[in-house]
Design a protein that fits this description.
Shape: globular
Distance between the termini: 43 Å
Helix content: 40-55%
Number of helices: 7
Structural class: alpha+beta
Oligomer: single chain
Length: 207
């Protein structure tokens, strides 16, 4: 329900089933266990649903701009984005060896949805650089959530997937995930640029 809420102030969700008997059973349990939304939470959700199309459209447009920047950033070794962003040049296309996958992901996404996406991820090739980057952003907030009107950043292996044993993870330790919000993409790109500079300076000073 991250996108439905969009303001990081409610926890909600939908259970959809095709079996009427199962639906009745779930309805009983929801009522009996008291897990249904409170009146105030319901009001917050209704409030947020009114702006859902605007928020998603704005976030997806911003994500396209941020993805285009990351595709040209020398610090980015692999980019994962199910959106129609071409590699800026042949050199970048060779460096970003995930573009084939991204193109396939975009085709799959486009076959079942309108517009692009607002969540993307990338690898820097250096877990220390990725961590320093996340800690150096000023607009992006470090959190494991997504779908908020605020832009968010996280390192899955250090946060959301930290409890998974390293040997069982399928994610690279340097993977950075971004959830783009409704801020001006020019400001978001500037924030990433200064964060990359700060991260490189921090690593250089520690050598």
């Amino acid at each position: 329900a991250e996108y439905m809420g969009g303001h990081a102030d409610i926890t909600a969700g939908v259970i959809a089933v095709s079996d009427p008997a199962l639906a009745e059973r779930l309805g009983f349990l929801t009522n009996a266990e008291g897990v249904a939304l409170s009146p105030f939470d319901s009001w917050l959700l209704l409030r947020s649903l009114r702006t859902l199309p605007l928020r998603v459209e704005r976030a997806c447009a911003g994500a396209l701009r941020v993805a285009a920047y990351l595709a040209a950033a020398p610090e980015v070794k692999r980019l994962y984005f199910a959106g129609p962003v071409p590699a800026p040049d042949d050199a970048a296309a060779e460096r970003l060896d995930a573009w084939t996958m991204a193109d396939a992901a975009w085709k799959l996404h486009a076959s079942q949805a309108r517009g692009s996406v607002s969540v993307l991820s990338f690898e820097t090739g250096d877990a220390a650089l990725s961590l320093a980057l996340a800690e150096s952003t000023r607009i992006f907030k470090i959190t494991v959530s997504f779908g908020s009107l605020c832009s968010l950043i996280e390192l899955p292996c250090a946060l959301s997937h930290a409890s998974v044993p390293a040997a069982e993870r399928t994610l690279a330790p340097d993977l950075v995930r971004l959830s783009i919000g409704i801020e001006d993409p020019v400001d978001l790109i500037a924030d990433l640029q200064q964060a990359f500079r700060a991260a490189r300076a921090r690593l250089a000073s520690s050598e």
